[in-house]
Amino acid sequence: MDVSWIPGDSDLLVTVVAGLVVLGGAGAALLGRTRKAPPREAPPREDDAAVAPAAAPAEAPVATEPESAVETPEAVDHRFGRLRGRVGAGLGQSLLAIFRRGSLSQDDWDELEETLLLADVGAAATDELMADLKARLRADPQADPRALLRAALLDVVDPGLDRSLRLGAAGDGALHSAIVVGVNGVGKTTTVGKLARVLVAEDRTVVLGAADTFRAAAADQLETWGTRVGVPVVRSHVDGADPASVAFEAADRARAEQAEVLLVDTAGRLQNKQGLMDELGKIVRVVSKVSPPSEVLLVLDATTGQNGLTQARVFGQVAPLTGIVLTKLDGTAKGGIVLAVQRELGVPVKFVGLGEGADDLAPFDPAGFVDSLLGE
Ligand SMILES: Nc1nc2c(ncn2[C@@H]2O[C@H](COP(=O)(O)OP(=O)(O)O)[C@@H](O)[C@H]2O)c(=O)[nH]1
Ligand SMILES: [Mg+2]
Predict the structure, then answer these.
(1) What is the phi-psi region of residue 21: left when phi exceeds 0, alpha when psi lies from -120 to 50, beta otherwise?
(2) Average pLDDT rounded to a whole number, residues 166-174
(3) What is the pTM of this model?
């Protein structure tokens, strides 16, 4: 993964931020709604000529027509339950092993701290968790270690945070847009594809924008996701086309079709962080002309550990982040990164990726997560 643009010099970014919209618009909770009907078919369109390659300049983004045989994505409600066995129990099990020793010596506390840090919990969340555990032990020295740990972990995960996607509600008549950002390889395109499925499962009409224009393959990848669930994908067939113009075309198309949600995939592989930030800033601005993004989702790869926090700080400067999607949680026993990102960024983890399967993206469930850490 290329993260060479990350270190240092964050004040450079401030200038970029200045022109950005303030994100807002809380909508009804997406989560918790159940799927009542099969996904809608894409509405018939009469503007084919306007978006056909022949009628457009070489670089103009074109939309792909959904094919007729579309899949029905899994309903969202039970996904975390199905997938939670994939969260590595390593951290919880190590903590439990220490706690079962009974009254803890200073060495035990040191070991506990080390275990937390090694599991990517991060310094701030580790301090908080240790203090929480000590207070709970003082209050109830005979407490069952598992119950005590569970309560302390849950406190740090913070079940009170609003983790719903702010993308309005079905039938509210508005277009809601989300921009998905993150460094190369973390799982952005996969996440946009999976999120499209989540939304389709919620009976929303969706348009995808392939604003990663570095390689046609990136747009092909998104197109495959869209096609599978009958969601149109606006893309360019020209490598290196202007990402912001693709994003704008996608927003325009979403508006013209009265779609409910626009999801924009972006690139993360610029060598130079200022260039990336400029580009993302421009994408946010042009989409805002049609529908100010109510979600800017940062995708973080759980296996990259603390480096993810550095990435988050940088991306947070281009646009206020509204949520984290933590991918590849199935590939690590260091689930502590969830605690670190929330605590240090103040941005809730809204979804977690727990596999490469099309429906292996679940709304993050704090209690289920803590239970899986503890191997329950
Ligand atoms: N195991 C696992 N793999 C994932 C997950 N999310 C994405 N991936 C894989 O990560 C790789 C990079 O994903 P991609 O979406 O292309 O990343 P991008 O460069 O950020 O757009 C692909 O092989 C995905 O299948 C996840 O939650 N779990
Ligand atoms: Mg991608």
Answers:
(1) beta
(2) 94
(3) 0.83
